[in-house]
Amino acid sequence: MLAEARWPEPGDGGPDPVPGFVHSVFAPLVVAVAERCLARRYGRRPAPAGNRTAVVLVSASGDRASAEHVRATVAAGGRVGPLFFFQSVPNSVAGHVAARWGLDGPVVCLSPTGDPRADGIAEAELLRYDGDADEALLVLVEQAPDGTPGEAVAVLLGGGTPQ
């Protein structure tokens, strides 16, 4: 493990809004914990060139608040705003993090079938073992059912020989 971060940590309020993402705290939560983890490893953006760092986003429920908003809007016969089509795919926020930090490995999103951390680590190790990445930013995120940010963990894995 090269770096780790959590949300929340002591002193945290809500995560900062992220341009291009609306209504939900899912994307801001992912960005906040990923930024914190990457800053602990690299300092400031961008990461060094040629870093071959993958992003592996793991969430069993995904962006609940956006999904519920879209469902309610459609059920009421309303028009869904175009940003919801963009942010409804978790890869969009994972790609946002990769672009901001200059991470040049693959982006993968998982809905775990078992233990989320174990599933994410297995995917990260597979990417390293196959030669697709040297490091992997693993982000585990779940929104709280009441619409509050919930909790997230980001771990930067790498170094040594893939298992």
UniProtKB/TrEMBL annotation:
Pfam families: Ketoacyl-synt_2 (PF13723). InterPro entries: Ketoacyl_synth_N, Thiolase-like. Gene3D superfamilies: 3.40.47.10. One of its GO terms (molecular function) is acyltransferase activity. Residues 50-145 form the Beta-ketoacyl synthase-like N-terminal domain. This is Beta-ketoacyl synthase, N-terminal domain. The lineage of its organism: Bacteria, Bacillati, Actinomycetota, Actinomycetes, Micromonosporales.
